[in-house]
User: Which sequence fits this backbone?
């Protein structure tokens, strides 16, 4: 087997060396076939300090504590603990797990006063050595809870034209884009609800797959988007991993619920049930390259040793050399609008000639033909073979797929007796894959 892996690995390396060609090389070929290339995102109500009772004892006067405090959005909670949006709370030490950090926005010029000004917000976050505090955000993990608090988050340029719930829905749609979150399975996103005109809350529940140890965890999330005043909006995200919580986690959650005045979505029993149901269903084997979302047969995984940040390789068990077959995806940018206006009926021969010229330039040979339309665009198929000695012949199907500005090289490779048929898998992906907009 080791001899086979070495031999097949050499074949893979030879192919990769031949195919890992720069986009510039294809651009040079394209210039001969393309004519044009177009060019191109508190009125600090001064907390009406209740008149302080002053008691005279003899001739001395002593300030006494206020007897009452108005119950407003900016006042302390009924327990006396501070809440989100309140100022002058840095010295509070009543929490067991939380401590205070001050977030601050970048200074901007106030057109009315001509002065550089910034906004501040005091927030209570879990205390831990791995907490990260930036100027405008704080994040970290504690007792199975991952958290992030952002002051004045970037939402969208016209955010003021939408309600808080609409803006929160928009943020979650972006955060849980399936093309960039393939590790999230069985995702359920609630509609954001308005708690008041300036506050929205939403929840997300999913199972997170860890490809490195082939494990899955139930995760429950709660999101808060709140406008405190004209200059301050805060975005809070909390994620609870059902496999990382401890007996102290509920105590930490209680303190966070108190400070953020937020009902945090967590139920250990429901989390366990969600994970059990997902695993019992057989799960799903969906993958994404960032531009293409597709399903693979059970047991197929990404080969992190063969692939890299720009190429995606998948094989049975996640090992191309051990399985004797694999499929791969690579994207090259050709130039903005290079292929716009392509007509399959009249221009298919041109694409074949482009690929033939490309192969000739790289001193490669194979059978080249027009494959037809795919989910990504028109494609040309090249069939190559390579002698693997006593192990037979390695067969390579390379699909050169084009959209307006990019070329995708999608390959299916198998040793003659590998027992797998990656060619059928790629053909199904080219027909049924979902393409990012």
Assistant:
């Amino acid at each position: 087997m080791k001899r086979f892996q070495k031999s097949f690995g050499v074949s893979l390396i030879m192919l990769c060396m031949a195919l890992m060609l720069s986009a510039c090389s294809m651009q040079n070929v394209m210039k001969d076939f393309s004519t044009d290339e177009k060019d191109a995102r508190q009125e600090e109500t001064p907390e009406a300090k209740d008149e302080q009772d002053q008691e005279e004892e003899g001739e001395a006067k002593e300030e006494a504590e206020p007897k009452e405090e108005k119950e407003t959005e900016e006042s302390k909670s009924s327990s006396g603990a501070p809440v989100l949006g309140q100022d002058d709370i840095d010295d509070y030490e009543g929490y067991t797990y939380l401590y205070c950090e001050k977030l601050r926005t970048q200074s901007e010029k106030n057109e009315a006063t001509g002065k550089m000004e910034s906004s501040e917000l005091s927030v209570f976050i879990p205390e831990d050595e791995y907490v990260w505090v930036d100027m405008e955000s704080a994040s970290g993990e504690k007792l199975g809870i991952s958290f992030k608090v952002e002051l004045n988050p970037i939402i969208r340029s016209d955010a003021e034209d939408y309600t808080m719930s609409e803006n929160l829905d928009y943020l979650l749609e972006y955060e849980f884009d399936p093309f960039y979150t393939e590790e999230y399975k069985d995702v359920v996103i609630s509609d954001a609800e308005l708690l008041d005109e300036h506050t929205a809350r939403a929840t997300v529940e999913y199972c997170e797959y860890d490809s490195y140890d082939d494990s899955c965890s139930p995760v429950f999330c709660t999101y808060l988007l709140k406008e405190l005043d004209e200059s301050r909006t805060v975005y809070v995200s909390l994620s609870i991993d059902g496999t990382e919580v401890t007996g102290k986690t509920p105590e930490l959650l209680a303190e966070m619920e108190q400070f953020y005045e937020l009902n945090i979505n967590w139920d250990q029993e429901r989390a366990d049930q969600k994970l059990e149901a997902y695993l019992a269903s057989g799960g799903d084997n969906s993958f994404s390259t960032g531009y293409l979302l597709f399903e693979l047969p059970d047991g197929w995984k990404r080969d992190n040793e063969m692939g890299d940040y720009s190429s995606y390789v998948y094989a049975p068990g996640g090992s191309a050399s051990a399985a004797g077959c694999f499929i791969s995806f690579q994207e090259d940018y050709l130039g903005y609008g290079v292929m716009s206006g392509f007509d399959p009926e009249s221009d298919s021969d041109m694409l074949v000639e482009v690929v033939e010229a490309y192969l000739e330039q790289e001193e490669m040979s194979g059978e080249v033909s027009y494959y037809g339309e795919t989910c990504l665009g028109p494609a040309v198929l090249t069939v190559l073979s390579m002698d693997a000695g006593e192990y037979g012949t390695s067969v390579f199907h390379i699909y050169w797929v084009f959209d307006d500005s990019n070329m995708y090289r999608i390959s299916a490779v198998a040793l003659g007796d590998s027992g797998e048929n990656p060619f059928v898998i790629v053909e199904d992906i080219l027909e049924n894959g979902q393409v990012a907009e």
Remarks:
- The helical segments are 2-19, 23-31, 164-175, 249-260, 268-280, 320-323, 344-361, 422-432.
- The radius of gyration is 30 Å.
- Residues 115 and 197 are 31 Å apart (CA to CA).
